[in-house]
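MODEL INPUT / OUTPUT PAIR
PAIR INDEX: 1
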Amino acid sequence: MNIGRSIEFNKDGGVAWRQAVGKCDLSDGAIIYKYDGGLNQFDMLGHIIEYSACEKVDMNNKLLWSWATYSTPVAQSFQCPQVGCLKIKDIVKVESEYSEWSASYFTTVTTVNGDNHRFVTSPAGTVTWYEHGFIFYRNRTVA
């Protein structure tokens, strides 16, 4: 993770940017990163879609939890064992948390109309379970 500002250009001339700051959590030695940026996607008016995100990684660089919110709803695709390739539209928030007892990540994807799509993934990122319904855990925020 690089602290500071980064800019990426794609082959089509699009640009994505990110501003990142880090803060050490002295209670457990983990680091909390806060991001603000713009995706290489555009809303209906041609504006870059902006996002805010936060994540906490432990001293071994393992992701403990993360969240991201988008200024304009976005679409993302997920590979799920029950349904194959699943494209979710109108995403406004994605939250993930690592579970020590299951050695898996629990992720909730929330859409603009409040629908929740829940995933369980392996540490390698493979989706092992999917459900469309209620939320897994409380929201994470950083002051």
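PAIR INDEX: 2
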Amino acid sequence: MFDDSTEEELREILPYAFRQRDELLRLLSVIYPAHLCRRTPDDKSDADWPALLCIHLPTGNVMYHIHEYHLSLFVHLVCGSNDWDGVGIDVRSKRLDDEVARCMK
């Protein structure tokens, strides 16, 4: 998909590619309890992604890195503790799937 793009070009467009995702996350953060938190010191993600969004679903917490360009979408949230429980993308996806199933009952 981006085979001809340089790493620098990708770093420039990535925040814009995540804009719609973050708009949906903003909606979820209004519907469910949520807060922002800082990355842990061992978090190796890019410094341009300074915050984590933690959404507390009934099926478990889900967390997402938020780019500095999009922090203004989450001004309604307070900053809290980093609740990351060490799970990866697969568990996060399962928690989201479980919540969708729960809501569809």
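PAIR 2 NOTE: The CA atoms of residues 99 and 105 lie 10 Å apart.
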